[in-house]
Amino acid sequence: MINIKAPERHRATLPLNRCAVIVAAIAVEALMNALSQLLLICHPDLHPSPALARAQALAKATGATLHLVVLSQLPSRLATLDHVLRGNVRRQDAEHRKAWLNDQVKALGELGTTAYAETLDDEDPLKDLIRLAQLHRVEMLIKDVRHETLVSRALLTPLDWQLLRRCPIPLHLVAQADTTLPARVLAAVDLVEDDHAVAKINERILQHAQVLAQRCKAQLHVLQAYEPGPSFLAYAAAPVAWTEDRVEEMTGRARERLAKFASHYGIKPDHLHLVRGPARNVVSEYANQHAFDVVVMGTVYHEGMTKVIGSTTEQSLYKVHSSLLAIHG
Prior knowledge:
The longest helix has 28 residues, at 83-110. It is built from 11 helices and 11 strands. The chain has 329 residues and is an alpha/beta fold.
């Protein structure tokens, strides 16, 4: 792991791009002003949960309106009941969910937070959740992480994974929340490839991470995982061995790129971290070792492709002990 402190010989190559700084500041300010609507998918068992605690804290800190949604979790064996019994069970379940939601809205109101609640009964709630988020102009969707077995993930795509691939707004998946408001935020970026689409995602990752950190008065750190690969030696006319000098050259380039990117957002040099290794391992390991409360990552999914671009985020879902904030590209 390398904490970025640009040596003297690099400083001349890292001019402060004032235009880029201004653009970045404007983008962050716009997000700050827009963070006013949050949507929470409540725990299916209707009990206090890490996501509920995080949503309540964020709503209080930002003054946001909180929309509560409960998804119907009726057992599959309900289909074997006759029509009358099935109707009675559905009605009782709906009444129970409504009463619980009303209690939450009342409690939030007493704390000074404006809240609304509704239920979704669709067996495939993804489309309705996205519709609700767009209808209410939600800026963040919050949900507890629900661990699924490998068999379950192979047979069915869990809702968490569907949301990671399809949700167009920032998706906050909470596994645990030792503090209701995050105190340490880690933005994981990918600055290895010269790709315009990836560059845009990196910008959005850092913008949303900075807004979250500022609104929560949290520390913001930036992580870049890197490893020697074909893209670094694409310019070579023939195969080139990875010597210590070439690894050091790559490290220097990665260090410069990270420092230049972060300078647009005013990130402290000692809050920049360069770690050698594959991102699918580095991000979760670093976040867990250094007790970060939220890891902000990007995700892009293309229909029909066997590979998911941004699959590092999916692979990190169950590895990160605290929570993820996924930014869709």
